[in-house]
Structures are given as C-alpha cells and as structure tokens.
Amino acid sequence: MYRQKRNRLQPGKFMTAAYLLPSLLVYLLVFILPVVLVIVMSFFKFSSIKSFAFVGSANYRTLLADKNVMLALRNNIFLVLVCLVGQLGIAFVLACLLNAKRMKAGGICRTVIYFPVTLSAVVIGYVWQFIYDYNYGLITYFMNATGHGDAVTPLLAQVDRIMFYVCIPMIWQYVGFHLVIMMSAMTAIDKEVLEVAEIDGCNGIQKARYIIMPLIKPTLIVCVFLCISANMKAFDHIMTLTNGGPGYSSNVLALYAYNISFQQFNMGYGSAVSVFILVVTAILFVISRLPEMISQRRERKGEK
Amino acid sequence: MKNKRTLKSYLGTIVINLIPALYAVTCIFPVVWLFYTTFKTQPEFSIDVMALPKSFTNFTNYSYVLTQMPVVKAMFNTLRVTVIVLFCVVLFSFINGYFLARFKFRGSRVLSVLYMSNLLVPIHAILVPVYIIFVKIGLSNHWYSTILPCICMELTTSIFLVRSYMDTIPKELEEAASIDGSSFTRTLITIVLPLVKPVLVTCGIISFFHVWNEFPFSLILFSNEKDYTLPLMLMRFKGEYFTDYPRVMTSLFVSIVPALVIYSLFSKQIIKGMLAGAVKG
C-alpha cells in the first residue's frame, strides 16, 4: 500500500532528472568546479588563461613566508573578534531593552536599526569615508563643535588604529541583523519565567544575564556562527573604505587574494591564498563549534 | 518613599527608551545627512558640512549625476540581473526543495550535501577559478555574466527554506490530485506552487537584497562601463569625482533610493523573511 502510494506521487527517473539537472549543472559549473579548480590552480604559476606552469608547492612556501598574509590573517581574526563582541554585545543589550515591558517604540526602533543591513557594503564604505573625512567629515565637525578642534587627525591614516576604524562601520551595519534574530528568540521566552524572576527581586541586568541569556543560547550560537562567516568574508567594506591601506595595515585575506590575482595578475599565488582562506574558515568553524561539541560529549558520558 | 520609587521607575523608563532610540538615530542619520547634502553646492558644503542647504530645490547635483554619470544605466543593469536571478532562484529552489523534501531517489542525499556545502565556502575564495572559467567559455563581459554566480550563491538558503516548509505540508492534497488523474507537472504547478507561495516570497526577499548589492562577481566579470551594476559603478566613478563631495553623495543617495523605498514599504515582511533565512539557513 505504502509503496504504491509513493510510486504514484514520485515521477520517473527521466522526469526527476529533467527537473533537477538544470540547477545542478549551473551549480556544478559555477560553484563545485571552481572549488576543485582553486585547489588545483594553487599548484601552478600563471598570470593569464594561456600559460600555466606547474610549480608544485612553491606558492604555499611563498605564502608561509609572506608577512602580508600573516598580517591580513591577524586583521581578519581581529575583525572577527571585535565584531563578535561589538555586534553581538550591542545587539544583545538593545534586544533586551527593546523587549522590555516599558519599551514604547520598540517596533520603529527595530525597523530603523535594521535599515543599514539592506544597504550595499560599497555604499556603507563610502558613507563612512565621509564620516571619517579629515576636512569635511562628521567626526571632524563634532570635534570642532565640542571644542576639540586641535585633536582632529586624519583618522584613516593612522596605521596602528586603522583596524578599529574599519570595524566600526561593520559593527554599525550588522547590529540590526543580530538584533532582529535575538529579539525573535526573546519573544519566544515564556513570560511567566520573567515574571517569577521579577517577583523574586531580579533587576534588569540579572534578568538579562541569568535568565534571558541561557534561554536563548541556541540562537546566540547561530549568531556567533553567522558573525564569523560574515566577517571572514569582509571585502567590500574595506576595499571601499581604505583599500587595505595605509600600506597593508588594514588588509584582509579576501582583499589580499583579490589584489594579488587581479591587480598583480599572479593568479596561482592568489589561488593559494584563496585555499588558505578556505582552510582558515573551516578551522574557525570547528573552533566555534568546540564548546558545544565538548558539552555534548560530556552529556553522553554522563548518560553512560 | 513611594514618590521616590515612582520617580526612579519613571527615570528607568526614559533610559530604557532613550538608548535604543539614540542608537536608531545613528543608523538613520547618515542617510538623512546624505539626503540634504545632495541639495548643496561644494562651496556651501565646505563652509559648514552639517548645515541645511539654502534651498531644497537645487537639483544641479541630480541633473549632473543623472546625465553625466551612468547611474540610470547601472540601475537598469542591476535591476535586469536581479529580476532574472530572482526568477531562477525561486524556480530552482521550488523544484529542488520539493524533490528533496518529498522523494528519496538515487543521489538525493549527495544532492542535498552538495547544495549545503555552499555554506562553508566564502565566495571570495573562488573568484579566480570563476574568472578563468568564465573567460574560457566566453561568458565574461556580457550584461548577463553575473547571473549564474548569483543564482548559485542564493540557491542554498532558498532550497533549505522551501524544503523545511514542504515538510510541514501534508501530502494528501497531492495524492488526491494524482488519484484524480492529474499529471505530475500539473500537480506541481496547480497544487503545490500555491501552497508554498509564502516561502517563495521569503526566498525572493532574501535574494533581492543580496543580488541588488552583489559586488565581488561584478568586480571581476564586468570590465565594460555599459555593464556596470550599481555598487561597481559607485566604486569605479568615485575616484574621478571625489573633489566634489555633494556630487558623490548625490550618486550614493540615488543608488540607495530603490532599496530605501522597498524597505520602507515592506519592512515588516523583509525583516521576517531575512530572519527566516538567517536562522534556518
């Protein structure tokens, strides 16, 4: 009976193939093939599509000795860490406030705070370039207006603090994204739990730390995951804001791979850097899953 | 004592409301600033960057940007790519999501793993091979060059959304239709499609903003000015005009108007849709 039912609904092999092949072919051509190719190409030296020369692991040896790659990696990790703290921290605080009973304009605040997420990173990069601008920037304006005019400096030229200035637009843009995710998780919390806590004399901060945070932990883990993957992909913002400068001080891996491949036309080495990005991303994902995996293993051991 | 208490809670309410409101102001203020600066001239701007313009009817920046910079052309290019990509993504994710949710066939597991693998690979890592492949098969430097990469980038989340939505729909309707003699394709279009329409709208919303703002693939695949999409056009033309700030800001503002309008009209649905994509994808 069950078999018959399934047969009636399920189309034949030919039909299935006809439906699924178009998208699969596109996907194989534009995604799977490139992933395989990038690994293959990282063992070659070439600058155009005509002349390929096999160089073995030379690209990887260059990579490991390349100071700029390590600097870019450090910047990437810095970016991920600062954005984890900044984006998730600000979003969590705001989400708690917006979900509070005494909040009057929660809906409109959420809508407005989410707005930057829908903007193109190129636009965000330029808008912040205007904000940071030495002559006409908003920061310069406010410094002058508050009487700190003599402290005005060209912000985007400060080598040692440039990464902070690069992080701020990215934090600013994506707070809304995490805010919305956290708010929806918070509305799912049973109201009674919070009321009981209030009766027991919990203040707002205690409520956030000891009740809300543990209850939305699965969502927070999703946010961490999304935050890491978004910031490993940082490219457009930095390209438009500083283009990796001054020097290489705000370079990140994706931008470095692009510049090597498409500005210096050293595509073999660019592929090696790309493979490096893949490896680093994979490692970061594993690290971010570790606490969860360890606690799961502990639970399983406890059951035994 | 009681007075003190109410005063304190009153202050608390103000603080609670004020912090998010202030943050919201910082989110919208740059756009407002952008907007009113578009009516200023460069000398006006350099005297006082924050002051309101002398007149809100000074459209010289707009006329310059719209006639001298390929903004309209770029907007048309972006729209054309976006519409085609959205159509394909919705169609492909509908079919794939339906098949993966309903049927077990040879390779169905491999297929779903293949599509999911997209989540682990940052697109910037495959720019070089995509460029090489597209140059080899002659797909680069046409207005349609970025369509295929964009489809691939959007497919994973959409397939996953359709699939998990299909799981919640009982298959009795389809069975009844097939008992009544409806062919597979007809059932798919007349019965299943209307049922999954809400989730397809969600897929469309998520993909719209991604494709509209897509940058890396445009950067490597377009080299003719006539093919430029909006973000790429802004990138390429900024350097030339960077001495005239209001003019650059006008081009920025014009480029965000479509997103701004769509967002203010459908913000509820958009937030809901993006949320579904983020949490489940």
How many strand elements of chain A? 2
The CATH class designation of the domain at 78-216 in chain A is: Mainly Alpha
- What are the segments of chain B in which pLDDT stays under 50 over at least 5 consecutive residues? none
The dominant shape of chain B is globular
Largest sheet of chain A, described in full?
A: 2 strands, antiparallel
Beta-strand content bin of chain A: under 5%
Mean pLDDT of chain B: 86
The fourth-level CATH homologous superfamily of the domain at 78-216 in chain A is MetI-like
Q: Supply the number of structural domains of chain B.
A: 2
Helical percent range of chain B?
over 70%
As a whole number of angstroms, the C-alpha radius of gyration of chain B is 24 Å
Under CATH, the topology of the domain at 78-216 in chain A can be stated as MetI-like fold
Helix and strand element order of chain A: HHEEHHHHHHHHHHHH
* C-alpha geometry of chain A: globular
Counted by DSSP, the helix tally of chain B is 13
Number of helical segments of chain A? Answer: 14
Beta-strand fraction estimate of chain B: under 5%
Structural class of chain A: mainly alpha
Number of strands of chain B: 0
Largest sheet of chain B: none
Distance between the termini of chain B: 52 Å
